[in-house]
Each structure stands twice: as structure tokens, then as C-alpha cells.
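re the bet — no i am not wrong, look at it urself. input seq straight from the record:
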Amino acid sequence: MEKKLYTIIIYTENIAGMLNQVTAEFTRRMMNIDTITASSSSVEGVHRYTISLWGEEDSVHKVTKRIAKKVDVLKADYYVDNEIFFQEVALYKLSTPRLLENNEISRIIRHNNARVMEVNANYTVVEMTGQTDTVVNLYNEFVAQDCILQFVKSGRVAVPRASQASLGDLLFDEDYKRKSVKDND
């Protein structure tokens, strides 16, 4: 079977220990999480985890199903990239002396629609929001210019393309629940 990049979106009650319960399911199946983003959602008391990982659909389906069956999990589904809108945020700490001596670095920043956040005598911090490949490509361009001091990127933030309904409607609508991983199996 072919491995693909999947994004799993999980809604849980906002209680202590849920992240540990969720990640334990991946550990049990020896699945490596690529990125994880945890945040509150638009529904009070509901927490959201967005997890990306490389895997085979059957394995991703099984782990998502196990997570969805947990008592405090309200909903869990998985998606491939064309089924979601997603972005990541990256920060690049660059050498200011290298930036000043090499005009190509400034051109790269402008060409990639990145934003300079701070400049001082030692370093310049650049921020960029985009899809994974765009964020990583900019990093590679900075490496080629020998100006990168530090690099960090967030996990994904994502919303499904399919539904027009609000999160509250999706979590509590019986017809929609029947279509989710939790109730399909």
C-alpha cells in the first residue's frame, strides 16, 4: 500500500489528559506523528487537535476510529490534502550581517511574500505563512544563501473543504455524525 500524508482532525471535551490519550493511540500502533496542533475551537468547552502523519489509509482509518470511540472525543475524521484548507506558520532567524552583504536574501524574502518582523545588528526575524512545501522551500533558499541561524514551523491549522455547516452543527447533527469515522464502523 502507498503511504500518503493524512491530516486527522479531532474534537474533544476540554479536559486534562486528552492529548495523552490521543497520542497513546499512535504509539500503540507505532505510527509517527509528523505535526500536531492543539487549540480551543469555536464551541465553548471543545478542544481541537490537528495531527498530520504519513501512513497507509487502512492504518490511519483504524487509529482514527479508535480515537473516535473514546468517551470524551466528540468527533474524529481524517483527510488528504485536497480535502482540506491548511496553512503553517514559520519563523526564520537570519544573520543580519549576511542579509546586508547579500541583496539576494532581501529579494528572496520579497519574492516569497514573507514578512520581516524584527531587525537588529545580529539577526533578522522573518515570518511566513503557507503550505508545507512553500515554508520548507523558503528555508532551503535561506540555507543556500548561508544566512539561517534558526528555523521553526508550526503544525497545520486546517478546515475541511466539504461542509458549509458551523462546528456546533457538525458536532451535534445526527445525519452528519453518521457520516463520520466514529459512526461508520
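see?? Residues 174-179 have pLDDT under 50 and may be disordered. told u. also The chain has eight helices and nine strands. so pay up
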